[in-house]
Write a structure and sequence with these properties.
Blueprint (H helix, E strand, L loop, with lengths): L5 H13 L3 H13 L6 H13 L3 H13 L6 H13 L3 H9 L6 H13 L3 H13 L6 H16 L4 H18 L5 H13 L3 H10 L5 H13 L3 H13 L6 H13 L3 H9 L6 H13 L3 H13 L6 H14 L2 H13 L6 H13 L3 H10 L5 H13 L3 H13 L6 H14 L2 H14 L5 H13 L3 H10 L5 H13 L3 H13 L6 H14 L2 H15 L5 H13 L3 H10 L6 H13 L3 H14 L5 H12 L3 H13 L9 E5 L2 E5 L36
Antiparallel strand pairs: 1-2
Helix pairs in contact: 1-2, 1-3, 2-3, 3-4, 3-5, 4-5, 5-6, 5-7, 6-7, 7-8, 7-9, 8-9, 9-10, 9-11, 10-11, 11-12, 11-13, 12-13, 13-14, 13-15, 14-15, 15-16, 15-17, 16-17, 17-18, 17-19, 18-19, 19-20, 19-21, 20-21, 21-22, 21-23, 22-23, 23-24, 23-25, 24-25, 25-26, 25-27, 26-27, 27-28, ...
Length: about 700
């Protein structure tokens, strides 16, 4: 083999670097140095390009040092290669120092420096550099114009105002026309991208139509532009037109369409686009994961994450936060713990975005103590983190702790959001504490959230659960904008407090306002009907759901109707409803029927209902207690004892209830035989004698279908 010299090494290193194997190129460079051959400016340019491609900053700095040693640091070819390497490695400070030390920067130098500044977020500096380039007499070429247009595009997403950013872009566009660069495809694509990022998709379309030749990049930019402004149908139209013009969509096309579909909340189409991408990046996976989270399809989020793991795609901070959110919503603690472990391995557990997700997941999954430990270890906390811990405490009825954290949040200078207030107001509702609720209402007024529908709905719910329907209605009537949630809370409040007629009256008034009812609205009004004996009204409302509003009745709606009919003793109609409904295996239906049988001493139908609950919910004590009560009311004490014995033999235990009262030192809980000295959260026991004599089976005839 002929002796290898610098020329042969340069040729091979440059070829390997261009072939997409920058790591191999760096290895060959080390081999060249080991043979004692000095690099030339061509060698260094190829190696620095490879360093930039793989962001090998340390290797790049080593090359820089060698360039100084062999006297090539003043070579413009090497200087530009160094400049490009530093900008691609994200070391803007090194790039600026190098550029400022250059004796005669040319158009390549200015272009590389502008791109680096824009990439690092120093958009102002990039634009000033372009002005300096024009003043210094350096030739402004299409590549430089493309670079500054990229900076203009980023300006809109940065600290600039949209108006100022558009003005900047338009002045550059004028320069493009003046210099005759409008026919250059790269310049045209940069102009389109800039206008697309400005949300000026009409201007982007004009540039597109003026281009003498169109590439797949041009089509992709246009699709992205329409997607960004929410014109989903137009983006699909452009995709079809692109294919009709002979262009095959590439992975960028499908990624852009995926993002567009997610923005349009069309997750099935987004999934179809995703499946056409051969090697999705972590960003692409995250886009689809975010779509599932957005649509509350959390099980799909988990399954997609499992697939991502199987394909060995490393998760990033966004991935972990999304999965933690789904674990939180579904209450999947074990997977949440696995994600926590992964975040530690990836050194992402201290990232505020991930840490917020961990606090939320643990608190929502009942591990409030763990959530507090993570919260306390966080060096930075934003309002999202405070809301997560407060919400978790409130959900698990740790109401006093929630109030303490809310107080600390304000003391730490955090301004409560609508989520903060909704959680705290919910705590007041759970405590049925009017004094604390009024205090929170006063703070809501002070902070200007009284017209926020989210907070307003929580206030209505709080007053209703505290039994104060006058204040609930007063606040409801003062709301300027009412969404369906506010209407539902008010109707439900009337229903739960025994004002069925007012619930129906408000429901009918709502219909006159053109507010369309939803599934929850019908649960509320049907509850009002059942609690007030408005049976015929309940039947009419139930029948109108599907025919008038296209709402398919759920088990909750059937339960309300059965409750209304059962309370009225109309058991023939109850059996007809149960016979037709698709929810025969839901125990709550039979519990409602059994409760009605207790009221009307209907042992035959009560036995049937109890038998279904024994099968569907074996550890539920209610059917034993209720059936025993039916027998006792009919003087069948032997059967009542047999039911109690059966309950005991199956290990079914009746839970002990407790109540809350307001006390001068805060809320207190008490159970049977307690005094009011028991603090919230302290357990109290009492003895209860149970009849366990005569273990016998309860024999139930097949008196109803199911």
């Amino acid at each position: 083999m002929p002796e290898r010299n610098a020329v042969s090494w340069n040729t091979v290193i440059a070829a390997v670097a261009r072939s997409g194997s920058p790591g191999d190129a760096l290895g060959m460079y080390d081999g060249m140095l080991q043979e004692g051959l000095a690099p030339t400016h061509f060698t260094l340019a190829s190696v620095l390009s490879a360093c930039g491609a793989v962001a090998a900053l340390d290797d790049g700095r080593r090359c820089h040092g060698l360039a100084v040693k062999v006297g090539l640091d003043g070579n413009q070819f090497v200087e530009n290669a160094l400049l490009s390497m530093y900008t691609k490695c994200g070391s803007a400070d090194d790039a600026v120092r190098l550029f400022d030390g250059m004796a005669r920067p040319n158009e390549v130098s200015f272009t590389a420096m502008m791109g680096g500044l824009a990439q690092s977020g120093a958009v102002d500096d990039a634009l000033r550099l372009f002005a300096r380039m024009s003043r210094s007499g350096v030739r402004v070429d299409p590549v430089a114009v493309s670079s500054v247009l990229g900076a203009c595009a980023q300006a809109c997403a940065g600290e600039y105002s949209v108006v100022r950013a558009i003005r900047l872009g338009q002045s550059i566009h004028a320069l493009v026309v003046k210099k005759g660069f409008g026919l250059d495809q790269h310049v045209g694509n940069s102009l389109m991208d800039m206008y697309a990022k400005y949300m000026e998709v009409g201007e982007a379309m004009k540039v597109f139509e003026s281009l003498p030749s169109i590439s797949i990049v041009s089509w992709n930019i246009l699709i992205t532009g329409y997607g960004q402004v929410g014109l989903y149908a137009k983006a699909m139209e452009v995709l079809d037109l692109m294919q009709q013009s002979g262009f095959e969509p590439n992975e960028v096309t499908y990624s852009n369409m995926l993002a567009c579909c997610i923005k349009a909340r069309d997750v099935p189409s987004a999934r179809a686009m995703f499946e056409k991408i051969s090697k999705p990046s972590a960003t692409t996976w995250n886009t689809l994961l975010s779509g599932y989270c957005q649509e509350e399809q959390h099980q799909d989020t988990i399954e997609l994450f499992r697939r991502m793991q199987h394909q060995n795609v490393p998760p990033d901070r966004t991935t972990l936060a999304l999965i933690l959110s789904s674990c939180s919503r579904l209450g999947i603690l074990e997977l949440g713990k696995q994600v926590h472990s992964a975040s530690v391995r990836l050194l992402l557990h201290n990232d505020m975005f991930v840490a917020n997700g961990l606090v939320d997941m643990y608190s929502k999954c009942g591990q409030v103590a763990v959530a507090q430990i993570i919260f306390n270890r966080m060096t930075q906390r934003d309002v999202v983190c405070w809301n997560s811990i407060i919400s978790g405490l409130a959900i698990h009825s740790l109401n006093e702790e929630a109030f303490d954290f809310f107080k600390q949040m304000r003391e730490n200078g955090m301004f409560p959001t609508e989520s903060s207030y909704a959680s705290m107001i919910s705590s007041c509702a759970r405590l049925s504490s009017i004094p604390q609720g009024r205090q929170m209402h006063a703070q809501v007024l002070k902070d200007g959230y009284d017209q926020n529908v989210y907070v307003g709905s929580a206030l209505i719910d709080m007053y209703a659960k505290c039994g104060n329907m006058d204040d609930a209605r007063l606040f409801f009537d003062c709301m300027i904008a009412k969404n369906i949630v506010a209407w539902n809370e008010m109707i439900h409040g009337y229903a739960q407090n025994g004002f069925g007629e007012k619930a129906v009256e408000l429901f009918e008034y709502m219909l006159t306002t053109k507010q369309k009812p939803d599934s929850v609205t019908f649960i509320a009004v049907l509850t009002g009907c059942s609690h007030t004996g408005l049976v015929d009204e309940a039947i009419a409302f139930f029948n109108s759901m599907e025919s008038n509003y296209g709402i398919t009745p759920l088990v909750e709606h059937y339960t309300c109707l059965i409750d209304a009919l059962g309370r009225a003793g109309r058991f023939v109609e109850v059996e007809a409803v149960i016979g037709k409904m698709p929810y025969k295996d839901d125990p709550i239906v039979w519990e409602v029927l059994l409760a009605a049988c207790v009221v009307h001493h209907n042992a035959e139908l009560g036995e049937c209902a109890a038998k279904h609950i024994f099968r569907l919910d074996p550890k539920n004590p209610s059917p034993y207690v209720l059936l025993s009560n039916i027998y006792a009311s009919l003087g069948r004490h032997g059967d009542a004892s047999a039911v109690r014995a059966l309950m005991s033999s199956r290990g079914v235990v009746k839970g002990r209830g407790y109540s809350w009262v307001d006390h001068k030192d805060g809320a207190r809980a008490f159970m049977v035989a307690d005094d009011l000295g028991t603090n919230v959260g302290q357990s109290t026991t009492f003895s209860e004698s149970e009849d366990t004599s005569g273990i016998a089976e309860v024999h139930c005839d097949e008196t109803c279908a199911g």
